[in-house]
Design a protein that fits this description.
With about 70 residues, the protein is an all-beta fold. It is built from no helices and four strands.
Length: about 70
C-alpha cells in the first residue's frame, strides 16, 4: 500500500520515515523505520545524522531541512 503525503501529494512505495522528504510535514500513517538502499548515495542530516536519499529536501527522521554541499 502506497503512502501519500496529505500536504504535498508525494507518493511513497514504502515509508520514508516520520516526515515527508519534500515538504517536511509529518506523515500520518508512516511506520517509523526508514530504509534507504545500501548502494544508494546518501545525504547526511546535519541535525540528527540520519542518512537520507539524495533527492530528499527534508530529513525523514527529524524534519530538519537538508542542504546541498556547495563546492567552490
Amino acid at each position: 500500500m502506497a503512502i501519500v503525503c496529505e500536504f504535498c501529494g508525494k507518493e511513497y512505495e514504502e515509508s520514508p520515515g516520520k516526515f515527508c522528504d519534500q515538504c517536511g510535514r509529518v506523515l500520518a500513517r508512516a511506520s517509523f523505520t526508514p530504509e534507504v538502499e545500501e548502494t544508494e548515495e546518501k545525504k547526511k542530516c546535519m541535525k540528527c545524522g540520519h542518512m537520507n536519499s539524495m533527492d530528499s529536501i527534508v530529513c525523514v527522521n527529524c524534519g530538519d531541512r537538508l542542504y546541498q554541499r556547495q563546492y567552490l
